[in-house]
Amino acid sequence: MATYDTLGVRYTRTRQPDPRIAAQIHAALADATTVINVGAGAGSYEPPRTVLAVEPSKVMIAQRPPGAAPAVQAVAERLPLPDNAADAVMALLTVHHWTDLAAGISELRRVARRRVVILTWDQRFFRERFWLVRDYLPEAAALDDTRAIPPDQLIDLLGGGRQEPVCIPHDCTDGFGAAYWRRPHAYLDPQVRAGISMLAQTGDGALETGLTRLAADLTAGRWHIRHSELLTLETIDVGYRLLVTDH
Question: Do 232 and 153 touch, CB atoms closer than 8 A?
Answer without folding.
Answer: no
